[in-house]
Amino acid sequence: MANKISITVNGKMHTAEVEARTLLVDFIREHLSLTGTHIGCDTSSCGACTIHMDGKAIKSCTVLAVQADGSELTTVEGLSKNGELHPMQEGFREEHGLQCGFCTPGMMMAATDLLKRNPSPSEHEIREALEGNFCRCTGYHNIVKSIQYAAGKMNGATA
Predict the structure, then answer these.
(1) Which of 48, 46, 47, 30 is nearest to 38 (CA)?
(2) Which domains does the chain possess?
(3) Distances from the Cα of 97 to the Cα of 5, 83, 91, angstroms
(4) Residues with Cβ < 8 Å from 140, sequence gap 6 or more?
(5) Which of 47, 139, 52 shows the shortest CA–CA distance to 97?
(6) Interatomic CA distance for residues 104 and 92, integer angstroms
(7) Is the dihedral of CA 143, 137, 104, 21 positive or negative?
(8) In a structure prediction context, what are the per-residue pLDDT tens digits for the chain, which is 159 residues long?
């Protein structure tokens, strides 16, 4: 049985019919073709599927699309505005916060959520906020530097 849902994603309203069992991550990737949200583990352990739902970071592999009906979602594609990189995206580029890039969208979404709650986090607070996001390529050093860069840029510091 199909369920009709309406979801705003990256500022654009989408209405679709989905099966009750459709995961939000699958809806985003397959129905909307927004492939920046990755599927890494299917168990909510890796954080590659992290997006913002109604302003809070969530793991979209743990939410059904029907549960998001009426919600406002932001994916990594929605961070940049008018062709300009979000400071978090810029930070990951400038501070080499990625290697293979698979975990990067989830890291960015978790980190932007952190900076909304805590605009000037310490290194310890950044590492603690990323506990639910795994990178199998790096030692997190440059990821932390990338987030510190973004925090400084968002707080008006020059890079």
Answers:
(1) 48
(2) 2-78 (3.10.20.30), 87-154 (1.10.150.120)
(3) 36, 21, 8
(4) 127, 130
(5) 139
(6) 8
(7) negative
(8) 899 999 999 999 999 999 999 999 999 999 999 999 999 987 889 999 999 999 999 999 999 999 999 999 999 999 999 999 999 999 999 999 988 999 999 999 999 999 999 999 999 999 999 999 999 887 799 999 999 999 999 998 754
Contact 7, 14 (CB under 8 A): yes
3-state secondary structure of 62: helix
Contact 146, 97 (CB under 8 A): yes
Distance between CA 49 and CA 45 in Å, rounded?
10
CA 124, 61, 75, 68 dihedral sign is negative
Considering the entire predicted model, what is its pTM?
0.94
Residue 40's closest CA among 63, 59, 19, 64? 59
In the structure encoding, which two tokens stand for residue 118, read together? 């805590």
DSSP 36: T
Residue 41 contacts residue 49 (beta carbons within 8 Å) = no
